[in-house]
Specification:
269 residues; alpha+beta; Uridine Diphospho-n-acetylenolpyruvylglucosamine Reductase, domain 2; Enolase-like, domain 1; 3 domains; five-stranded antiparallel beta sheet
Length: 269
Amino acid sequence: MYETQYHRPTSLAEAASLLSGGADAKYLGGGMTLIPTMKQRLAAPSDLVDLRHVAELKTGIEVSGRSVKIGGGTTHAEIAAHKGMEAIAPGFHYLASVIGDPAVRHMGTIGGSVANFDPAADYPAALLALSATVHTDKGSYSADEFFLGMFETALGDGEIVTGVSFEAPDASGYEKFRNPASRYAMCAVFAARRGGEARIGVTGAGQGGAYRWTEAEAALSSSFDAAALDGLSVPEDNMLSDLHGSASYRANLVKVVTKRAVKKAIGQG
């Protein structure tokens, strides 16, 4: 066994102070990644700084017209239950409802998921497709500049994700092809249309985590219909390949799942 000190700060300033005071301290959001990692002895932080009781992160969900702001400490279950979110951003609302299982949805937070950037996490694909902004205690980042690579973000040492914001699109849809055991995405796609611009966020399939499929965006910006994707193919070079699915399998999934997401966005799915 190893010794870990547990801390329960109530402010961002206190959390930052506790993190800097630990030899190898880690922030704890919902604990959906860190706790299993510790159980497997793949991580042994000297201190756990629990962010679940920090007031600045518990600002909930604010919908003002088409503008959406979500506090970093908001759970997946809270997003999935929010009627205002369902009304103006049904794709994002649905996404939150299919993360993990009920236990995960009631413990996991959007801030923790975004900060961790698991290659199969759901929110990053949506934030990329929605041109969202990621807010931290030290500044703000566009989603395009925030997500850098698998488990790698623009966050600096000790920086905390305090929330995300975006303008609701005219149409949105999310489709997720799940691993039946873990419920993580083998491939999932968030499709969004705002005006004449389409954006497609893909997660679960790429080696670098979530990314935008720009070729599909160009085709769908001309015609936001699943048939617009018929002539496209996805290169296998940057696809994940494991016991659950080869690179070629995932490359094909990206196109299939994108079509389904677009159909959902236009009310055909």
